[in-house]
Each structure stands twice: as structure tokens, then as C-alpha cells.
Amino acid sequence: MEETGRQIKCPGCGATLEFDAKSQKLKCPYCDTEVDMEAFSSDEKKERNTRKKSEKKQTDQEKKEDVRVITCKNCGAELFTDEYTTAAFCSYCGSSSLVESRLSGELMPDYVIPFKMDKNQAVEEYKKWTKKGFLTPKVFRSQAVIDKISGIYVPFWLYDYYGKIHAEGECVNTRFSSDSENDYTHRDYYYVCRDIEAQFVKVPADAAEKMDDTIMDKLEPFDYGELKPFQMEYLSGFLSERYNMEAEALEKRIEKRIDTYLNDFLKEELHRYEEKHVKENVILEKEKVRYVLLPVWMLNYRYQGKGYCFALNGQTGKIVGDLPVSKGKAAGIFVLAFLIMYAIIFLIGGIIL
User: Fold this and answer.
1) C-alpha 142: how far from chain center
2) What φ, ψ does residue 39 adopt, rounded to 5°?
3) d(CA 107, CA 33)
4) Of 146, 150, 65, the residue nearest 115 (C-alpha)
5) DSSP 40
6) Separation of alpha carbons 269 and 26, rounded Å
7) What whole-number distance in Å separates Cα of residue 106 and Cα of residue 55?
8) What is the Rg, in whole angstroms, of the alpha carbon atoms belonging to the chain?
9) Nearest Cα to 312, choosing from 140, 152, 93, 77?
10) Digit-coded pLDDT (tens) for 11-59
């Protein structure tokens, strides 16, 4: 199945506009023309809403027939994508193309947090990060590697939950005393009963199988006060994926996380007791789920057969990743340390003699 990718044209020169993280506007990379996000007509938004309602009537079979080939509207080249790509770059002319069919109907995100850090900022943060690893191979700082940094909107589900934990049982504190003849142990027993209720708002879970859950979790927190109602134009100039994990499939993961939060609250409540023999009952109720796109700068690289990942929160600048160790540098430092130690021993031996 083939579709023509949508491109947002510059009113000045006709090139493809891209979302600019600094100005929070659409900007032309050639003539620097800027267009406000609000400039898109309400008629266009109404048309999207109409399309969203009509596409809810799609059958399951129709959803399976997803687009895999996009025709670049700028140069006519065919872009081959997987079924979850929603924004891509043309390998021939470099234009950004948006796949509208994967961003509408039931697949339309509710909200998006726009990128606040552009590629130049991401590259600078990456360079600083690699310098922290004294034994990092030079290849990791090469321009060829740096150029692979990509800005991608990652799909997330945000969950609202009501949670309650009821705990009751016996707790014990132990005291010690002594007199001139004996040592005494005193055990104080308490019957405790606690009810803790909490409202959990916008608990995130990434909804793309290809994304490492551990890395995505470590990139938190995002500032959800900056969520914007979804507009396709925010994606122009970036890569984007749609979810391939349904919200229901991730509920257990979220509930486990919330259960941990509730137990942490309970531990804090009972911290004054040394021994705790209580029974707990947890009640969780899902209240709301939102589909959002969150900004991440990513670089995946292989070194000596092992994969490494650099990820940067495109809103806050928080970095997650592991740096490899150069065996050559490590060996050099070992030899240098050995020579220094040998020299010190030789020097001390000469002084003693």
C-alpha cells in the first residue's frame, strides 16, 4: 500500500518547513521564514476532527493494511518505512514527510511535548557527555558518529489512577536497659491500622516495542505542564513513531509501579517501628489514559560487537547512556601505572641501600 507523504511548505521559498525547538515555530531551513503554529486554520483542524471520527469506523482488517511505502512529495522518491513510522526523512532530498494516515482517527495522539532542545544543543550535550569517560574510544567522538543523532517523538501512554492501600497488624519496638546486676530487654507491641489514599496523575509508559523501557524510564521526568494539543506540524523535521503496544497491555506494568509508590508511602508511615508484621491490601482504579508523543534525542552505536545507546530528554536535557571503554587506553594506563609503581619501589630501594 502506497501513500504520498505530507509536507508543510514554506510560504516564502516553497521548501519544507521544520519545527524549530528554539522559537517553537515552524521555520524554513533555507530562507529562515517562520510560521506560528496557530497560523494553521481552524478549518484544517475541523477537517482533522471529522477525519478522526470517520476513521474510528475502520475495521480491524483495514488497520492491518497499513502504509509501508511513502512517496516523497518533494522529489518523488519512494521511502520504505515500517508500519509504525509516522514521520520520516527522504534519503534523497532530505525533506521531512508525515504519514497522515498513521496520525489520524484512533491513531491520533491526544497531546505532544514539542522539542525544546535543537540538534546543535543535543550534539553539544553529547560531546560533553563523552568527555566524562576518560577511557572512551575516540571513534565515539567522531563526526560520523555525531551525525547519527536523531530527534524522535516517542509514543507514550499517560495513566491516571486512584490508589488505596490498607494495612493492619502488629509492630514491635525493642529497648534495652540494665542495672548493677542484670541486663534487660523490653519489647513494646503495637497494633497498627493505616489507610493511605493517593491520586496518581500522568504516570508514563512508552508504547513502542523497539524502545528500551529502562532507558525511557530513566529519561523521566517530563514536565507535563507543557503538553500541547496534538498538531501534526510539531513533527516536521523530526522522526516519529506511533504506538504498537496497546494501553491495556501496559496496565500491569503501570499498576506494579503505582503499587511500589503506595508501599513506599506505607514504609514512611511505619518507619518508627522496628519490626512490622502487617497485612496489606491494595486497591487500584484506572481513571483516564492519554496517548502522547514525547521528545527524545537518540544515538545508537555498536563498538566491538556491543550496542551502546545515548538518549537525551528533548525537553529537559537529562542524559541516559553507557560509555564504552577503549581496551587500548585501559592497557596504556595499566602499563603507565605499573611503570610508576616500579619506579617508586626502585627509588625507595635505592634510598634504603
Assistant:
1) 25
2) -70, -15
3) 31
4) 150
5) S
6) 50
7) 7
8) 28
9) 152
10) 887 788 888 998 888 888 888 888 888 776 444 455 555 545 554 444 3
What are the φ/ψ torsions at residue 128 (nearest 5 degrees)?
-60, -40
Give the DSSP H/E element, type plus range, for residue 70: strand 69-71
Q: What are phi and psi of 86, to 5 degrees?
A: -115, -15
Q: Which cell is 348 given?
A: 625507595
Partners of residue 161 on adjacent β-strands: 200, 286
Measure the CA angle with vertex 351, ends 349 and 353; round to 5°: 70
Q: What is the DSSP letter of 103?
A: S
Q: Residue 93 carries which DSSP code?
A: T
Is the full-model pTM beyond 0.90?
no
- Grid cell digits, residue 257: 509501579
For residue 193, pLDDT beyond 80 = yes
- Contact (Cβ atoms closer than 8 angstroms) between residue 215 and residue 320: yes
Q: Which residues contact 62 (CB under 8 A, 6 or more apart)?
A: none
Conformation bin of residue 285: beta by default, left when phi > 0, alpha when psi is -120 to 50? beta
Distance between CA atoms of residues 5 and 232, nearest Å: 12
Predicted confidence (pLDDT) per residue in 319-347, tens digit: 998 876 555 554 445 455 555 665 666 56
Peptide bond into 29 cis (omega under 30): no
For cell 506505607, name the residue: 266
CA distance 136 to 303: 11
Q: Which residues contact 8 (CB under 8 A, 6 or more apart)?
A: 16, 17, 26, 98, 233, 236
163, 261 contact by CB (below 8 A): yes
CA distance 98 to 37: 16
What's the residue count for the chain? 353
Find, among 149, 151, 180, the residue nearest to 19 by Cα. 151
What is the distance between the alpha carbons of residues 338 and 349, in angstroms, rounded to a whole number?
Answer: 16
Which of 97, 102, 107 lies closest to 77 in space, CA to CA? Answer: 97
Residue 328 identity (one-letter amino acid) = G
Alpha-carbon torsion (38, 238, 32, 120), positive or negative: positive
Q: How far apart are CA 291 and CA 310, in angstroms?
A: 25
Q: How far apart are CA 44 and CA 49, in angstroms?
A: 9
